[in-house]
Design brief:
Oligomer: single chain
CATH architecture of one domain: Alpha Horseshoe
Strand content: under 5%
Shape: globular
Structural class: mainly alpha
Mean pLDDT: 91
């Protein structure tokens, strides 16, 4: 009805962000930004902050804009949620949590604000507090189905099989099933179960297709294969997952061109660990893989279990055989139910046997 309605473009961009369609989200926030002179000051600040964060990736300007909005409109929960999102994108979860809590204090019945508090507790490895927040929301009849997805995430992290079964069953007949399947696929990858991971990934894609969720695709089959150690013919953009030296170097150069975001995002840390192993720098590689293992909530997934293997290889390369043996054993525990023909598992067993 009004093609110049800037705030409608802003809200639609958020909807696409939540559905995982980043390109459509950027297109819409750019439209809102072009029309920002036709809205209130509060809306203009929200639009401007989102434009800097998601389109130009100027996180400094985005931070300044959100902080001005929070000071100018102290009863508005929105800028605190936007600050939470920005801090989280930089990996600064200690700063993100209080912003999430403030947004929830200002709007206690807004379900997604409960969700992001739980999300930040998980990223900080504060799992009991995360579960407590979710249960409090349920007791207040705050309807947030995504909380069940987060409880499933925690159940996988804590290896709580009864909780896993309960949450998977609850999500089975609901639209959020796609997130449940996605988590199940990543859990299978974490434990070296390639066949199960690929099957679940295909289910994710089918459910996402039916629901029109363009950004909710499952793990690419090639990525699953590469992470499991099947590196016979990895796709060009996935070869770095196999530790290919040239591919690792190219991936590192590519990422260096975009310094925005979290420098300790798990795939980046894993990449630096692989680069260290390739360069023969065992101690440096081990330090990178240890970063992954230090934050299970934030890094849970296939990179987490493979972090044990990377750490073991780094320790062995650095000459610390005693530590390496124990870390290899920790990896084997993670992959105790792995498909027996996984090349990564076969290689790890040979390396372990060769340790003196």
């Amino acid at each position: 009805m009004d093609p110049n309605f800037a705030s409608a473009y802003l809200l639609l961009s958020i909807a696409y962000l939540n559905s995982g369609d980043d390109s459509r989200q950027k297109e819409l926030i750019s439209k809102a930004f072009a029309l920002r002179d036709h809205v209130s000051e509060d809306e203009r600040l929200s639009i401007t902050g989102d434009y800097y964060q998601f389109v130009t990736h100027d996180l400094g300007k985005a931070l300044d804009t959100y902080q001005v909005e929070a000071r100018t409109y102290p009863r508005n929960a929105g800028p605190h949620n936007q600050l939470r999102m920005l801090y989280a994108s930089k990996g600064e979860h200690e700063k993100a949590l209080p912003e999430a809590q403030e947004a929830l204090r200002l709007a206690p019945r807004v379900g997604p604000f409960v969700e992001v508090v739980v999300y930040e507790y998980i990223n900080l490895d504060r799992f009991d507090e995360a579960k407590s927040y979710a249960e409090k929301a349920f007791s207040r009849n705050v309807a947030v189905p995504m909380l069940h997805t987060q409880l499933l995430w925690i159940a996988f992290i804590q290896d709580d099989h009864s909780a896993q079964d309960r949450e998977i069953q609850w999500l089975a007949g609901r639209p959020e099933k796609v997130q449940s399947l996605h988590l199940q696929a990543y859990n299978a990858m974490m434990h070296g179960q390639r066949c199960k991971a690929n099957e679940l990934s295909q289910q994710v894609n089918e459910v996402a297709r039916r629901q029109g969720l363009a950004g909710a695709q499952g793990p690419p089959l090639g990525a699953v294969d590469a992470l499991m150690g099947d590196c016979e013919a990895p796709q060009k953009d996935l070869a770095w997952l196999c530790g290919d030296a040239a591919a690792v170097r190219l991936k590192d150069e590519e990422l260096a061109k975009d310094p925005s975001g979290d420098p300790d995002r798990v795939d980046l840390v894993y990449l630096r660990g692989l680069a260290g192993l390739r360069a023969g720098k065992g101690a440096e590689a081990a330090a990178e893989f240890q970063k992954i293992l230090d934050h299970k909530g934030q890094n849970w997934g296939p990179f987490y279990s493979l972090g044990y293997l990377g750490l073991a290889r780094g320790e062995a390369l650095a000459g610390d055989t005693v530590k390496a043996k124990k870390t290899y054993q920790d990896f084997f525990t993670q992959w105790k139910d792995a498909d027996p023909d996984m090349p990564t598992l076969i290689a790890a067993r040979k390396e372990y046997a060769a340790l003196k």
